[in-house]
Amino acid sequence: MNSENITKNILFVTSLIILLISIGMVITLVSGSIPIFKEFGFQFIYSTEWDPTAGRENYGALPVIVGTLITSFLALIICLPLAFSTSLFIAEYYKGSIISKIIGTLIDLLAGIPSIVYGLWGFYVLRPFIVQLGLSEQGYGIFTSSLVLAIMIIPYATSLSTEIISLVPNHLKEAAYSLGATRLEVIFNVTVPAARSGIIASYILAFGRAIGETMAVTMLIGNRNAIPHSIFDIGNTMASVIANQFGEAEGLKLSALIAIGLLLFLITAIINYLGKLVIKQFS
Amino acid sequence: MTARPIKNSIFKGAVIVFSLIAITPILLIIYELVRKGYKQINISFFTEVAPSTWDAMMANNNGELIPGGILNGITGTLLMVFVASIIAIPIGLITGIYLYENAGKRYANVIRSISDILQGSPSIVIGIIGYFWVVKYITNGFSALAGSVALAIMMLPLIIRSTEETLKMIPQTIKEAGLALGVPYHKIIMRVLIPTSFSGLVTGILLALSRVIGETAPLLITALGSPMVNFNLDKPASAVPLLIWEFYNDPNMVNLIWSSSLFLVVFILTMNLISKKIAPKKN
User: Fold this and answer.
1) Fold of A62-282
2) Please, what sign has the CA dihedral across residues B151, B152, B154, B158?
3) Which of A89, A95, B111, B208 is the most exposed place for a label (fewest CB within 10 A)?
């Protein structure tokens, strides 16, 4: 075999590693979840019980699934106006200016802060503030977590949409201006439609981030496995229940947590795939 | 007629206000970390291991600074990140080169999608994988190796994608010049592709490192944490984010939370800024 083929084979064989890792991940998660599905069947997904007491063990994932979806949606809703405005600020209103560079850098820095530091900040700064506002007694809960999550996903929601908005060709905008359109009209009739796919995709990807976020949520959500009654109620998310209970779990409970991990993995994979699909569809 | 310019100005005002709101959290977080954290940062912070809760309590009662530091966390982080890099950097670079060389092929697209899905999968799920693959079957207990494997799995997709994106920026002509001279394939990679894209590759690696250094959730269920400096891959090890989590759960250690977080954040943000500085400029 000549050196040309050796090199090609090394490249190919190495590329198999990531394939094997992901197949291995799915096998591990699926085989780990088998006991819980054997015991409860698909009731596991829509049951609201969570009782680890030996003898009458009962596990249902619905509360954490609902908790995850509510916190992430709320985070996305809070994040949207902030991220959208920032994108417009950087890529439209003050494109290329120093102030835009500064704001862009600060937003990028948000992505570098570790989850646990967000958790600390939420716990020691935001939580007392929520209590002061009288929104909830202890300050824990869905709302507090969503607020922190919203901050955490701003950079993900902003970066791609900023890039796409700044790529909208000038002559499209100028055509609208020449017809007497105001800037606002240009933004909503020209820029946003032209950049739609990128903007939507970046929000989908940011949503995916919010769903898998662990530490900050674990520290703020209150950790109770029941369906929350309001956004100021405490709850649990899929990631936070794993982080909280994995350490001492065994048997059925361990299997339940792995099954939740599997669901989490699937949900984020689907959302990421959707995001990529949206980008491809429109571009 | 006058409504349009008014709407236009109101919208611009809203964009500016929301953008300013979006950059407030990062300023508040850094302010909080510096204000509460700088006092504890001294020589012993870097040279001593974390104190026992008793020592911390005594110091608090006497109104002194908490003795000890985060040496076990720093060494643990360095050890695990180093081992993770040894695993992830070569595989990531080679896979990235493979994707670049085989762009458009069906198999390469599959690998790219898998890498994207892996990149989006929640860190806690990767922690579960580290637990089952290493803690359960290789080291028979929580270990630094398990933490390293989890971090490596997180780094891998980041390095793969950044390598591919960087290589795409190299002008085809440079590579073709080498091919025209009859240079063997592996020499083109080593002497042409890697040197010309070197700064971009380093940027990708640094960004991958700065992403995993702050990770807490996967380490919580793989490396667990250790009160001592440990360089043994078989044994549990601490990490800076794990120490922050421990301090957070121990009311006596509250003051150490802020200095450790300040250190971690400054470290990560510096790495981010360096990597942006050396990043090749897109045109």
Assistant:
1) MetI-like fold (1.10.3720)
2) positive
3) A95
